[in-house]
Design brief:
The chain contains twelve helices and twelve strands. It has 362 residues and is α/β, with parallel strands linked by helices. The chain has a domain at 2-192 and 229-254 and 300-321: Rossmann fold (3-Layer(aba) Sandwich), CATH 3.40.50. The strands form three sheets. It has a seven-stranded parallel beta sheet, sandwiched between helices. Strands 7-9-11 form a three-stranded mixed beta sheet. Helix 2 runs parallel beside helix 4, helix 6 (202-212) packs across helix 8 (261-275) and helix 8 packs across helix 10. The protein is globular, with a radius of gyration of 20 Å. Bound molecules: nicotinamide-adenine-dinucleotide and 2'deoxy-thymidine-5'-diphospho-alpha-D-glucose. 2'deoxy-thymidine-5'-diphospho-alpha-D-glucose is lined by residues 87-89, 136-138, 190-191, 201-202, 205, 217-219, 224, 226, 261, 297, 304.
């Protein structure tokens, strides 16, 4: 039975990935989820699978090399899928240091532990061991023209402390591939959306604010462009890279689904409005009057657009979920899980929101 060590499995994409893998492979695989449970980690996301015999949760910090080495010593790990990171750009602008610690040092600890466990006396690695580093399209910087795309060969040009820390971690993984022929892949994905996303990110924030009758803060002119991919398609892509991709290679993942932020906001307002029942008092409040333009994000990247051509060609991956369907599923999920939203937005989230948004003027 193959054992997967998933870091950051209690976060948004990690928990969706674990669900995807257990649904796809059933009892054929074993999953060890290693997560520190920061504000972004939530075991509620995994409630329905927590009692499975082939799933284990270990609370640990990826920067704690002793603990991480111990996990490798105690378990024969076949695959590492490394999601754990500080992931929110706005937080990286107000508090950059934790991004360097978790994203750079944490990745270095994971690489060292896997290398130690998998390296043989002659310097080659045990058969069929693979490490996948989950990264972002933000490492490539920002595009201006609508006909330009990020390719695997595009030079790195990160702008935020978040993207700089992810770029550094990518470079570390690359250095292990180049120096040791360490059995790794790097994937760079565009913006994900779907169930279990923490409402500091645009889409769940719009949904939550709209339902609460709160203003929807739009940074700058609202015309920044992101390429949105349904999270399950990202999970599928990661699995396909490990199963069908070429070892040591880097793959860009994206849905060719570019939209301006303001378009996303209009789509969500309309979807929410249509989905709420006639007798729901919130229905009439959900309209464009909630939109408010606020101070722009510092160093705000204008446009991300990624080419997934290599991924399609070498692994056969294509996204399954069209944006119209993905947004419908996402809005429905949040409407069906209002307790989940209530739990994650009580307490510390209120302080975060006040600190982050009070500083922005209309
Ligand atoms: P998230 O913030 O929702 O989850 C991060 C998880 O990592 C949380 O469970 C958190 O508790 C855990 N974590 C943080 N620091 C840790 C530490 N020191 N030790 C152990 N666990 C720790 O993030 P996400 O949106 O799910 O992103 C996951 C990964 O995918 C990140 O590496 C991110 O850079 C990358 N990525 C995200 C997107 C996106 O749109 N969200 C797109 C491309 C790539
Ligand atoms: O591109 C991949 C990246 O996508 C990931 O690497 C990051 O982990 C993930 O957080 C995401 O980064 P973004 O900065 O693109 O996502 P965010 O949801 O924070 O913002 C999306 C866009 O919406 C961006 O242009 C900023 C804007 N925005 C965001 C928030 C939270 C607003 O206008 N208002 C807001 O309140």
């Amino acid at each position: 039975m193959r054992t997967y060590l998933v870091t950051g499995g209690a976060g948004f994409i990690g928990s969706n990935y674990i669900h995807y893998m257990l649904k796809k492979y059933g009892d054929e695989i074993r999953v060890i989820n290693v997560d520190k449970l920061t504000y972004a980690g939530n075991l509620e996301n995994l409630k329905d699978i927590e009692k499975r015999e082939n799933y284990v949760f270990i609370q640990a910090d990826i920067c704690d090399s002793e603990k991480i080495n111990h996990i490798f010593e105690e378990n024969e790990i076949d695959r590492v899928v490394h999601f754990a990171a500080e992931s929110h750009v706005d937080r990286s602008i107000t508090d950059p240091e934790i991004f360097v610690k978790t994203n750079v040092l944490g990745t270095s600890v994971m690489l060292n532990a896997a290398k130690k466990a998998w390296e043989q006396p002659d310097g080659t690695f045990k058969k069929d061991k693979k490490f996948l580093h989950v990264s972002t399209d933000e490492v490539y910087g920002s595009l201006e023209n609508s006909d330009e795309f990020f390719y695997e060969t595009t030079p790195y040009d990160p702008h935020s402390p978040y993207s700089a820390s992810k770029a550094s971690s990518d470079m570390l993984v690359k250095s292990y591939i180049d120096t040791y022929r360490f059995p790794a892949n790097i994937t760079n994905c565009s913006n994900n959306y779907g169930p279990y996303q923490f409402p500091e990110k645009l889409i769940p924030l719009i949904i939550n604010n709209s339902l609460q009758g709160k203003k929807i803060p739009v940074y700058g002119d609202g015309k920044n462009v992101r390429d949105w991919l349904y999270v399950e398609d990202h999970a599928k892509a990661i699995d396909m890279v490990q199963e069908k991709g070429k070892l040591f290679e880097k793959y860009n993942i994206g849905g060719h689904n570019e939209k301006q932020n303001i378009e996303i906001i209009h789509i969500i307002l309309e979807t929410l409005h249509n989905m709420l029942p006639e007798d729901d008092a919130r229905k009439s409040r959900i309209n464009e009057s909630l939109i408010t333009y606020v101070t722009d994000r510092k160093g705000h990247d204008r446009r991300y657009a990624i080419s997934p051509d290599k991924m399609k060609k070498e692994t056969g991956w294509v996204p399954d979920t069209m944006f119209s369907e993905g947004i419908r599923l996402t809005v429905k999920w949040y409407l069906d899980h209002q307790d989940w939203m209530k739990n994650v937005t009580s307490g510390e989230y209120q302080n975060y929101y006040k600190k982050m948004y009070d500083a922005k003027t209309e």
